[in-house]
Amino acid sequence: MGKNINEIIEQAVNTGRLTKTDVVTLLSSSGEDAAALFAAADGVRKSQMGDEVHLRGLIEFSNYCERNCTYCGLRSSHKDLARYRMEEEEILAVAAAAVPLGYRTVVLQSGEDSYYDAQTVASIVHRLKKELGLVITLSLGERNRDEYKLWKDAGADRYLLKHETADADLYAALHPDMTWERRRQSLLTLRELGYQVGSGCMVGLPGQTLNALAEDLLFLQALDVEMAGIGPFVPNPHTPLAKAEGGTVEMTLKMIAVARLLLPKAHLPATTALGSIDKQGRQKALTGGANVVMPNITPNRYRRMYEIYPNKICLDDNPAHCRNCIGGIIASLGRHVADGPGHSPKDCFSGLAG
């Protein structure tokens, strides 16, 4: 006889270890069983990460992309998309305006855009660190080891590179001219160079199975990521997957909850994508294991052009309004905005300055 849900949850809480079969069982839960999963995840979040919610100010500084991923609205073959690039001084100005709002971390994100060569990115990172004292997360896709090292030496603290799916065949179908093995190796290189590593996956991709989702979670655990970004797949009408069904709120929340049980000391964001398909999506994630929110501080004139998926929330909010809004949401849950840099609580990162 197999273990019941409560036994699996208890094992996860006590040991942080589950078999793939156990993970699939948790992801298959519903009703009272799912409620027990969410409650357990929230309890682990509280005991391991406290009641702080960490804010990461997101700057989407270029929507050019040299890749052609089948799910993404920034794909290179989307010729009707108006493209933009922010120059160094504008990026610095946006980040500087975020500091008085209480942001300690900025996330520099773009499509895979080689217009920003390694030295340009290094200069931006160095100035953000030296002039503003910010903690810096980069999310620029796959680059080579020398570039990653240069940016780490310039002051970058974290790197977010989502693996999207740990199913190699599905990965190949979604990413023309890319391979799962290269993505995995890139993440291992980031780990070796001393970055706080973020990865993550989409939930509800066409052809994705519960076994594949379980593999995603076990891969994140094996990599021992400092952050795991898990959000729903949202079909974009300008992609080959335009008519596919999207990921569900319920499955995304269960993935976040199981991630918290497997990764008790990882930062888990309540994603904008989840908030875009459910008005209460971020609140639900924050009460089911999540402890990070990434408000968009990109200038409004660019936001609609960074359309990885459609109907994104907060496109017209200015950073101050957005900061107040998210602060209110966090307070309504009995939580508070963190005032520290939000580094990983794992021992190997506990002494970092920032």
Automatic annotation (TrEMBL):
Superkingdom field: Bacteria
Record-annotated Radical SAM core domain positions: 51-273
Co-factor note (free text): Binds 1 [4Fe-4S] cluster. The cluster is coordinated with 3 cysteines and an exchangeable S-adenosyl-L-methionine.
Binding site for [4Fe-4S] cluster: C65, C69, C72
Record-linked InterPro entries: Aldolase_TIM, BATS_dom, Elp3/MiaA/NifB-like_rSAM, FeFe-hyd_HydE_rSAM, HydE/PylB-like, rSAM, rSAM_sf
Entry's Gene Ontology molecular function annotations: 4 iron, 4 sulfur cluster binding; metal ion binding; transferase activity
Name the record gives this protein: Radical SAM domain protein
Residues annotated for S-adenosyl-L-methionine binding in this entry: E164, R183
CDD domains named among the record's database cross-references: Radical_SAM
Binding site for (3R)-3-methyl-D-ornithine: S139
Cofactor(s) listed in the protein's UniProt record: [4Fe-4S] cluster; [2Fe-2S] cluster
One Pfam family recorded for the sequence: Radical_SAM
Keyword line: 4Fe-4S, Iron, Iron-sulfur, Metal-binding, S-adenosyl-L-methionine
GO biological process annotation, one example: sulfur compound biosynthetic process
Signal peptide (UniProt feature, chain positions): none
